[in-house]
């Protein structure tokens, strides 16, 4: 319960700081009713309300994962951050196949199915995003295809 109360307090304080910074936004005389100043204040008010509710009605104390599980979560976080940085220079297919394969291996530690999952997700998502949704994805690094 104490962790929820601390989290609620942090959310409330951050939301109040967000509201305070939103009040400093300069608006012109031609702005709409929910403009550049009002909308952030509304978002901050909702966040502050949620933080207060979490403080007043906390959940029972959670069961925190062990060190091994926390290490797996940290590894997944590192993989996803590296994936985000690798997308632009390496294109979509290679980083997606590597990241999906590593995360699939983490779920079920069998190398061949994990590699096939990574390749399948990479190709399948590329087809969906590029051709079905019309996104401007680059498949490989620009120098590879001429």
Automatic annotation (TrEMBL):
InterPro entries the record matches: DUF1468
Keyword Transmembrane applies: yes
Domain annotation DUF1468: ranges: 6-136
Transmembrane segments: 38-56, 68-86, 92-108, 115-140
Key words of the record: Membrane, Transmembrane, Transmembrane helix
Name this protein carries in UniProt: Putative tricarboxylic transport membrane protein
Organism of origin: Meinhardsimonia xiamenensis
